[in-house]
């Protein structure tokens, strides 16, 4: 006899368990919960996931998730367009936004440089960041990458790329979060007060 009484149940559990942080026991609990929900609720969830996959866009400027070609943050008239906060992923954008301490724009790299994982500079959204800074309107770049070896390596690589932009005479100011965020911590799980203070007390990098 199969582990589950239904092949459809087995397939649903198998697919659900492929999600990050979801083991088979948790997947089974979630699938059974969906079975107990009314059909309308389950169909609504399925539709929202399908529409998310088919219709969600990535902002052409900052690469954050968006419903339009240019996201609400990049198009907001009251954001400070002279300051860019560089983050690893969309979760980090949400983490920084939750502090209420940053009113500039973002740039989502889509990861960090990690030779061990086969991720090089060309796999990240670095060239588009260089283009944004070269445009001359950006006055400060804040590196808000996770405080890991890979994050620090990425900070260093990008800072070298930006060190003489937009011109050698007026290079962009670069800064990193204050180390209130502990080494190895993920910004997504850092409390809002600590992260907010790290933004306020950011440290200027030497060009």
Offer a few descriptive terms.
7 strands; 5-stranded mixed sheet; alpha/beta; Helicase, Ruva Protein, domain 3; 2 domains; about 210 residues
Give me the Rg, rounded.
Answer: 21 Å
CATH fold field value of the largest domain: Dna Topoisomerase Vi A Subunit, Chain: A, domain 2
By oligomeric state, this entry counts as single chain
Mean pLDDT: 91
Explain this structure.
With 207 residues, the chain is α/β, with parallel strands linked by helices. The chain folds into 2 domains: 7-55, Helicase, Ruva Protein, domain 3; 78-205, 3-Layer(aba) Sandwich (Dna Topoisomerase Vi A Subunit, Chain: A, domain 2). Helices cover 41% and strands 14% of the residues. It has helices at 7-16, 24-36, 39-55, 72-75, 90-99, 127-134, 149-162, 192-200; strands at 57-58, 65-66, 80-87, 104-108, 140-143, 173-176, 203-205. Strands 4-3-5-6-7 form a 5-stranded mixed beta sheet. It has a two-stranded antiparallel sheet with strand order 1-2. Strand 1 and strand 2 form a beta hairpin. Helix 1 (7-16) packs across helix 2 (24-36) and helix 5 (90-99) crosses helix 8 (192-200). The longest helix has 17 residues, at 39-55. The protein is elongated. The termini are far apart.
Q: What's the quick description here?
A:
The protein contains eight helices and seven strands; from the N terminus they run αααββαβαβαβαβαβ. It has helices at 7-16, 24-36, 39-55, 72-75, 90-99, 127-134, 149-162, 192-200, and strands spanning 57-58, 65-66, 80-87, 104-108, 140-143, 173-176, 203-205.
């Amino acid at each position: 006899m199969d582990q589950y009484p239904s092949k459809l149940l087995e397939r649903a559990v198998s697919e659900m368990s492929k999600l990050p942080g979801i083991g088979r026991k948790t997947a089974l609990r979630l699938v059974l919960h969906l079975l107990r929900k009314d059909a309308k609720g389950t169909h609504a969830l399925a539709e929202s996931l399908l529409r998310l996959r088919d219709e969600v866009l990535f902002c052409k400027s900052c690469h954050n998730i968006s419903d339009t070609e240019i996201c609400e943050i990049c198009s907001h008239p009251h954001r400070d367009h002279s300051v860019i906060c560089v983050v690893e992923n969309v979760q980090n954008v949400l983490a920084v936004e939750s502090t209420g301490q940053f009113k500039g724009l973002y740039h989502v790299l889509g990861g960090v440089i990690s030779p061990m994982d086969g991720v090089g500079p060309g796999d990240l959204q670095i060239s588009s960041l260089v283009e944004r800074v070269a445009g001359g309107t950006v006055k400060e770049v804040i590196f808000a990458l996770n405080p890991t070896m890979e994050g620090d390596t990425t900070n260093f690589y990008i800072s070298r790329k930006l060190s003489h932009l937009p011109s050698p005479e007026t290079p962009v100011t670069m800064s990193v979060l204050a180390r209130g965020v502990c080494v190895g911590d993920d910004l997504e799980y850092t409390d809002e007060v600590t992260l907010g203070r790290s933004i306020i007390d950011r440290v200027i990098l030497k060009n």
